[in-house]
Design brief:
It contains twelve helices and 14 strands. The chain has about 475 residues and is α+β, with helices and mostly antiparallel strands. The longest helix is centred in the middle third of the chain and has 27 residues.
């Protein structure tokens, strides 16, 4: 028997009648935004629960306050409300809810997902679910103020037949059957652990919640005093100071030893010799493959090298003015490096092959800078890295050379450039990086003084925000 059952999207706008379940008290939200909205809570009849309805904008909610200071908040936000600003302003904290805000970075991500995650991070919370929960989207969230290392338990409810529950006419029988089947699935994927006498409570009034809260407060105070003492002792030692900060913020990653390279042969030494032989000869093997592709030798390539007799140690750069730039743009030709005839890429590929180098087409992208969609080049534009000697103007345009993909944005030297030369995508990337640092500041704020917090902010956060500003 479940203690509390929360149902969302209950269509209370069209049918306000709530079915009763044996041994349960039922409660429903009265403020409904649309016909499909509404949140229903079923609480065990022997529990003295207090039910209220928080005032959340553009969302249906119900708050169940249980004994031992436990609270369960059920939220349903309709996807018809595209703007979530008012919802975020009215939201103080979230435990669990059906929010219909996709936080995954894919094609169907909510346009204000970053704003929602930043608001949650300000409360010291983070989403523990980063996988799709409904189709390709992550719409159901569980937020907590700690980093979860737990492994999720998956019950195979999809393979279970539920037709008889839907076809029945008695809701009480259907509820009992649903509860019993879920209990069977949970027991199938769980294990029983016997509790020793040392961990058994001595008095009836000692509840698990009271023990948990007491020990949590005690451990928090001990950890706070320990962190403050460690930071004070390492104040004059920068190396030790940062090591202490990493320990407090749980930034020390366990290094796993990779033993796969030692299993190619029966003996580990023979496997390592084979790996060393591969890396020692990888350059020579690559050069031989390029020479065999070109059908030439190193002597033939060396004969084509021309020696420049001009002075190589002198350099002079004249100032650039708008007139010079305009003249260069107006004099661009198709059969040169710039242009859409792919002549420049052909020259680059030829030069790389002549110098025994390669160009990875999978990692090479191109951007089309434009202000409006009208000025954008066609999407069907095909640009290839020609190695066959052909180009767009040749008689054989359908060659098998690698094609370069078009990208909307690209990251270059830590800066994200998009096709409109705006900083929207770059700011979005910075927002994600800074949001991950809020958890570090939360762990340090109890034990570190203002100077240490300022040093950590300047080193980790400000360096990210102010990168490439000058």
């Amino acid at each position: 028997m479940f203690d509390v059952i929360i149902l969302t999207e209950c269509h209370l706008g069209t049918c306000p009648l709530i079915r009763s379940l044996p041994n349960y008290r039922h409660y429903g939200s009265s403020q409904i935004n649309n016909q499909a909205g509404g949140v229903v809570a079923y609480v065990r009849a022997d529990w003295n629960a207090t039910v209220s309805e928080p005032a959340l904008c553009n969302a249906d909610s119900i708050l169940v306050e249980l004994p031992n200071s436990k609270s369960i908040l059920g939220i349903y936000r309709s996807p018809s409300f595209g703007n979530i600003n008012q919802f975020l302003l009215s939201l103080d904290s979230i435990v669990k809810g059906d929010l219909n805000i996709n936080t995954l970075n894919n094609y169907c991500q909510h346009p204000q997902a970053d704003e929602y995650l930043c608001f949650v991070a300000q409360l010291g919370l983070q989403n523990l679910i980063n996988v799709p929960t409904r189709g390709p989207s992550c719409l159901d969230h569980i937020l907590a103020d700690f980093q979860s290392q737990a492994v999720g338990l998956v019950c195979k409810v999809d393979n279970f037949h539920w037709e008889d529950l839907l076809e029945g006419s008695d809701v009480s029988v259907a509820a009992c059957n649903l509860s019993s089947r879920l209990k069977v699935l949970v027991e199938k994927h769980s294990k029983h652990v016997s509790v020793s006498r040392r961990k058994t409570k001595l008095k009836d009034w000692i509840t698990p919640g009271l023990i948990r809260n007491t020990f949590s407060a005690l451990l928090k105070n001990i950890r706070k005093d320990h962190n403050k003492r460690e930071l004070l002792e390492s104040r004059d030692q920068p190396s030790r100071m940062w090591k202490t900060i990493k320990n407090i913020c749980e930034l020390n990653k366990n290094k796993e030893v990779n033993l796969e390279l030692t299993k190619f042969k029966t003996c580990p030494s023979q496997s390592l010799d084979m790996c060393n032989d591969y890396f020692v000869n990888v350059g020579q093997n690559l050069a031989n493959n390029i020479l065999s592709t070109l059908g030439k030798t190193e002597v033939d390539l060396a004969a084509k090298v021309t020696i420049n007799a001009n002075a190589s140690n002198s350099l002079f750069m004249t100032p650039t003015d708008p007139v010079e730039i305009l003249g260069i743009i107006q004099n661009l030709r198709n059969n040169s490096a710039p242009g859409l005839d792919e002549e420049g890429l052909s020259l680059v590929a030829t030069w790389l092959n002549s110098n025994l180098l390669t160009l990875n087409a999978d990692k090479t992208k191109y951007l089309c800078f434009h202000i409006t969609k009208v000025s954008s080049p066609p999407v069907s534009l095909n640009i290839k890295i020609h190695k066959c000697g052909n180009s767009r103007t040749s008689q054989k345009p359908n060659c098998s050379c690698n094609m370069i993909d078009r990208a909307d944005y690209i990251k270059y030297l830590g800066v994200v450039l998009d096709e409109n030369l705006t900083f929207g995508q770059h700011i979005k990337t910075l927002s994600g990086r800074v949001r991950k640092l809020i958890h570090i500041m939360k762990l340090l704020r109890d034990g570190a003084d203002r100077g240490v917090l300022k040093m950590v902010y300047t080193s980790l956060c400000q360096s990210v925000i102010c990168y490439c500003l000058t």
